[in-house]
Amino acid sequence: MTIGKRLAGSVIILLAVVALGVGLLSYAAAYRAVEQQLADAAPQMAAYGGMIIRAVLDRQLALVQATALRPDMRSMDWDVQKTIMEEETVRLGFMGMGVVMPDGTAYYPDGTTAQLGDRDYVKAAMAGSPAVSNVIISRVTNSPVMMIAAPIPGPDGAPAAVLIARNDAVWLSEVTDTIGYGDTGYSYVVDGSGTLIAHDNRQYVLDQRNFIKEAEENPDYARLAAMLTRMTTGESAYDSYVFEGRERIFGFAPVPGSAWSIAVGAYQEDVFGHVGGMRVSILIISGIFLVLGLGMAGVLSRAISVPVRKTAAMLRDIAEGEGDLTRTLDARGSDEIRDMADSFNLTMGRIRSLVGAIHDQADALSSIGEELSAAMTESAASVNQINSNIQSLRGQTGAQADSVRRAIAAMERIAGSIRELDKHVEEQAAAVSQSSAAVEQMLANIASVSQTLSHNAESMQELAAASDSGRSDLSNVSASIRDVSKESDSLLEISQVIQQIASQTNLLSMNAAIEAAHAGDAGRGFGVVADEIRKLAESSGEQAKTISAVLMKVRKAMEDMTVDAEHVVGQFEDMNVKIVAMGDRERGVRNAMDEQGHGSREILDAMARLQELSNRVKTGSGAMRDDADTVRDETAALERLSAELSAGMTEMAAGVAEINTAMTGVSDLGRGNREAIEALRAEVGRFKIG
After folding, report:
1. Are residues 487 and 531 in the same domain?
2. Shared domain check, 511 and 460
3. What CA dihedral angle connects 622, 628, 630 and 633, to 10 degrees?
4. CA distance 250 to 237
5. Which residue, of 143, 169, 195, is where some domain finishes?
6. CATH number of the domain residue 373 falls in
7. Taking Cα atoms as reference points, which of 434, 432, 429 lies closest to residue 622?
8. How confident is the model over 105-135, as pLDDT tens digits?
């Protein structure tokens, strides 16, 4: 796989991991924030709902109690009481009203009677306290109803009878219909035993459903029954359960001054619907970033891989093609690619100079080899001539003196040739030593460059680690800022809820003031309370608006900080990518220098072998020179000792045999030297240096 593809793949994988990680963390944080907001707000909403129900109950009780306190109602004149109850039933919207006497008998204007002395709400009213019943089955209508009772004081102030008013069983459900969390939320009320007395499903109220008891037979209601049990104990908390296949989330709180408890909540998919939409948005944004990252990775990988491919192609052409060392890289720009091109061109210039020097020395050695070969040919001819002369001397003793003179002359020529050969061999050895020193210097330079590249690689790794650490720390700061921004959104929603509650409370206070005005002097105190409630609601609304304005400013500042932090994180990521790419280029140059060092060491080994051959030629030349001196001495002795001609001829023949052997060795060395020189010239000739 090419560097460009690896770089592009790495960038894409990194972007995918970062986008997926940030998306999952954002989704999880949003889900937890909504869940925490619901856990905090739902019980409060339930408590506010309980206060609203308490206010409605108090209003109903106040209406019945105000009727019971009327002087004409206290007269205990049935005809008068009957007229009052008929009028108030129509005006107040009750299903019916009646009077319960101390013996427990209830009398209604239509002539109906019933025995209600055992009812709890009647007992409480007989004891002097107004009361509201749970949903019960009426003994008059034989249908579910809710009863309101208030004592009718006698002349001594003690209850002389009880005024009762009958409401439809679902009238409280109409109140709870206005209380709910969100657009689809709803609320319901249970009594002290867990029986539903208000619900958006009216049939549950009419059927007096009790899921605590039903859970004993149907385990599907176990979680619901557990929450209802907590409600019957007066607990204020938050819980969830599955009912009819849908997850529901509720906060619950007791209704003040009663054994009732109200639950306020909504469906889970509605509450967390916005979070699900955010998940889709995160996926879309992640996809956009991946596409942008793909384009950026392509541009970046091309900017890095194209110069590297050009360098690799040029090196391949030098190694496998014509070996043109005159080619250079285009060094433009001001980045690391420019530095690499400059270093490559400088290195090629030094190699070109070295190959040129080796080429010149190879030409010189070739000339020396040719001269040495000619000298060896001449020496071989001379030795053959000497041998012929010896044979002639053996057959022609009379021509001994002339042969000896010719032999002396021939030996002088041989000695001169040998001295010339020795000189050429010394020059060859010096040239080889110089070439070896140049190659060793080049190896030292390559080693120095490789060491420098290694130090640079370590520095790049430290820089990359520092950059990655900075990017990670800044990402953590950005994530914290986003979390704070999301929490401010939760506070804004809570502020809006407070404003809505203040508005509803204001409406209730106005309603209470109107009813207090209808009640006259008896409702004057209640009117003062309603006015104070209105002032409190207006003050709460204004404070909530002020808080919302401050929170909007805080959220705007957090969003600006998040954008700045994300911009800096992007710069860190770009810097880290460039650092990694520069490290890869440094490793490529170091590998190239290692290969160049290996080739230089091979040239140095060839130089060492050439030096060894030169030494062997020099040694053979010295031996041949010594043999030539010996022949010359022997020839002079032959001239002086002509009397010992036979012995001298035998000794001369032996000397000629030795010379012939030495000449054969020298000739072989000359051929080997020539072949080595030709091989060196052929190898150096592959490179074009000018």
Report:
1. yes
2. yes
3. -140
4. 9
5. 169
6. 1.10.287.950
7. 429
8. 999 999 999 999 999 999 999 999 999 998 8
Structure tokens at 77: 């004149």
**Which whole number is the average pLDDT over 386-398?**
64
- Whether residues 573 and 600 share a domain: the answer is yes
Closest-CA residue to 111 (of 143, 139, 82): 82
DSSP 506-555: HHHHHHHHHHHHHHGGGGHHHHHHHHHHHHHHHHHHHHHHHHHHHHHHHH
Give ∠ CA 491-495-499 in degrees, rounded to 5.
170
Residues 6+ apart with CB under 8 A from 262: 46, 49, 50, 53, 176, 179, 187, 188, 189, 198, 252, 253, 254, 255
> Last residue of some domain: 114, 143, 169?
169
Instruction: Please provide residue 127's backbone torsions phi and psi, each rounded to the nearest 5 degrees.
Output: -85, -5
Assess whether 412 and 486 both reside in one domain: yes
Q: What is the pLDDT of residues 474-522, one digit of tens each?
A: 677 667 767 766 766 666 677 677 777 777 777 777 777 777 777 777 7
Is the CB of residue 673 less than 8 Å from the CB of residue 614? yes
Q: Max CA-CA distance within the chain?
A: 196
Judge whether 319 lies within some domain.
no
- Classify 421 as helix, strand or coil: helix
224 and 363 together in one domain: no
| CB contact set of 354 (below 8 Å; sequence gap of 6+) | 438, 439, 442
What CA–CA distances, in Å, run from 208 to 142, 167, 243? 14, 16, 18
What is the domain range of residue 345?
Answer: 336-685
DSSP three-state, residue 255: coil
User: How many domains does the chain fold into?
Assistant: 3
